[in-house]
Amino acid sequence: MAPKIKVSKEKILDTAYKIVKRSGMEKLSASKLAKELNCSTQPIFWWYENMNDVKEAVIEKASQLFESYLKREIKDMNPYKAIGINYIKFAQDEKELFKLLYMGSKKIRENTISSDKNKPYIINVIQNEEMLTQENAERVFEELWLFCHGIATMMATDTAVFDDDKISSMLTDIYKGILLKIKEENQN
Hints:
By secondary structure, this protein is mainly alpha-helical. It contains ten helices and no strands.
């Protein structure tokens, strides 16, 4: 009779995810995970072929959390501005997951906001809000995303601290400036 498996795949993933949220992906190892699970490494490799598979599952779980942040509505706020605020809020609330998704390797970053997975959703929001062409909506997305990413990176790395009102004000200024520039260019 085969030994009964006492550690579920979900428990392994949840524990690995907690380690990464707390300390970053570089701190996730089979021995650390086994120690936190209070077991040997055997159950980990029963469910996962190797630690890269565990890490991929953690990245997917972090991406799902990010997407839930991204799509949160904020009362009385333009939906596109809410996306920017939510992006920065994710960096503020989930520093290690933000670093993993946005400051990690290129392979990881392909699964996030600038990827094909999230970009069409964001471009659609911009087009619907501002009645812009696809090209202009993409321009707004790129320019404002770079600004948001800068703020988010500073928040995630504790390089700078901004309160919610300051972040909102800065995003509005940049957003209006980009739209004004596009409008001026279209009139010429």
